[in-house]
Amino acid sequence: MVLKRGRKTDWASNPKNGKYEEGLYETRYKSGKYKGRIKAYYYKDEQGRHKTCGGDFDKAVQKYTIYKREHNIVIVSPKVDMVKVTITEENSTNPDEFADGIITTLKNLSNGDIKISDLDITDEFWELAERIIKTNLTYAAKRLNIPELGYLHKVKPPAKSITLDELWSIYKSNYEGRSKKNINNNIKPYWNEFKKCVGKQSVRDIAFEDITKYNDKIRQDKEKSSVLNQYRYVKNRFDAVRGVIRRAKDKISFKDDCIELLTHMEQFTYIKKEQEEIMLLQRPNHVFSAEDLAILLKASNDDLLVKCSILLGLNCCIRWGDFAKITKGMLDFDKKEYRSWRGKNANSQACMLWNETIEALKQYMKANPTDTENVFLTSYKKVWNIQYLQEHFNKIRSKVKMEWLTQDKLRKMTATKSSQLGFGSNTNAYKALMGRKIPGADASYIYTMPADTEQVIKKLHKYYFG
């Protein structure tokens, strides 16, 4: 697609610097409250049909770039200052790379009058080009009959791009929407994983192949971890990385590099929730039995952290987030009680503890004493990151070949078994165990009591331990 010299009257312009985005169009509200404002950006496909890209300029550029790349469309401009020349400082001493740079430049500078296919690109041509280009670009333009070469002396090598570490520092110091704790716990692990996978320090050096490699890796990790019911496993990681880049790009002078990287990432699609649910229905339905629990507890004797997570998951319906934050004040071994509040909804949660659960907790606390209220801390006296807890659990799970089991399923197994034992979702025992609200007087809610769960806990214990 070669456009004639000049600009279309309705080509879109960047709202921040006024530069035109060639091939991308804009529409505006013609009347009403928003008269004159940008309504949407769009491009035209090869049949001339409008393809709407939405109202955000940066995202519209990304979608249009993906379309051009998929259809091998090159929109060229005679303006030298809009050309991305691939000539760098290294190319000036490497004839082959310099020749490649000239070819790319000619493609970008082409305006319909000069085409690469019309040039006789032979070995003799480049021998001549290499000799005269290094000495005098103006003379080279005349000698080779390529006027555009005369402009290249005005094009400076691109400045060194920002590194991934610098980009992270800018994001961390400028984004106040999250607490420092949330950034370190939720965003930083994904960012470090991305940085390690692409293996590049500079944003500009990250190519589409690197993003493909990253996508393949986290999809493989998803399969290994058997996170069957979390369709956002891959998307969460991509969103975290893209969030860092998006929020940092407006604070730096290398915005184009960041937009190019975001464009690479936009080309990947994720499994939708509905598709994943269909996949789940097609997988065999495993039932966690008393025999499975016995095998799992035996395998986890050498890892008391995992053993406690298994027993608390079944006994108290606790997931990783609440497990990592258990304090000594929540446990009463004398009364065999557990009381807490669910991190997900801040509802009161309580239950009676099995003797096996109490014994495992006592063994762990004796082997890993702490001088704080927290029961489960790392060797650095920090609260466990869920990702690392999952790694501990996965090792034991793989050891006994129960890849289908996740810690989250333990809570669901208890909920299912409770219903089968006659304690359905409408009973106070079920709500206390699962951390659901129990209606009380005056349409308010009352705190759940461990005693409410005594009967269901006894029946569950009999099922698992006989």
Describe the protein:
The chain has 466 residues and is of the alpha+beta class. It folds into four domains: 11-70, no CATH class; 80-154, no CATH class; 164-282; 290-465, Intergrase catalytic core (hpI Integrase, Chain A), CATH 1.10.443.10. It contains 18 helices and nine strands. It has a four-stranded antiparallel beta sheet, covered by helices on one side. A hairpin with a 4-residue loop joins strand 5 and strand 6. Helix 1 crosses helix 9 (255-266) and helix 12 (304-316) packs parallel to helix 16 (407-420). The longest helix has 19 residues, at 180-198. It is elongated. Mean pLDDT is 76; it is low at 1-9, 76-96 and 109-121.
Question: Keywords, please?
Answer:
four-stranded antiparallel sheet, elongated, disordered N terminus, 4 domains, alpha+beta, 466 residues
User: Into which percent range does the helicity of residues fall?
Assistant: 40-55%
CATH architecture of the largest domain: Orthogonal Bundle
One letter per element, helices H and strands E, the order comes to EEEEHHHHHHHHHHHHHEEEHHHHEEH
Overall pLDDT: 76
Task: Give the low-pLDDT segments.
Answer: 1-9, 76-96, 109-121
Category by helix and strand content: alpha+beta
Quote the distance from N terminus to C terminus: 75 Å
Number of helices: 18
SSE arrangement:
Blueprint: E1 11-13, E2 20-28, E3 38-44, E4 50-54, H1 57-70, H2 95-109, H3 123-133, H4 137-143, H5 164-174, H6 180-198, H7 208-225, H8 233-249, H9 255-266, H10 273-282, H11 290-299, H12 304-316, H13 320-324, E5 331-332, E6 337-341, E7 348-352, H14 355-367, H15 386-399, H16 407-420, H17 428-434, E8 438-439, E9 445-446, H18 454-465
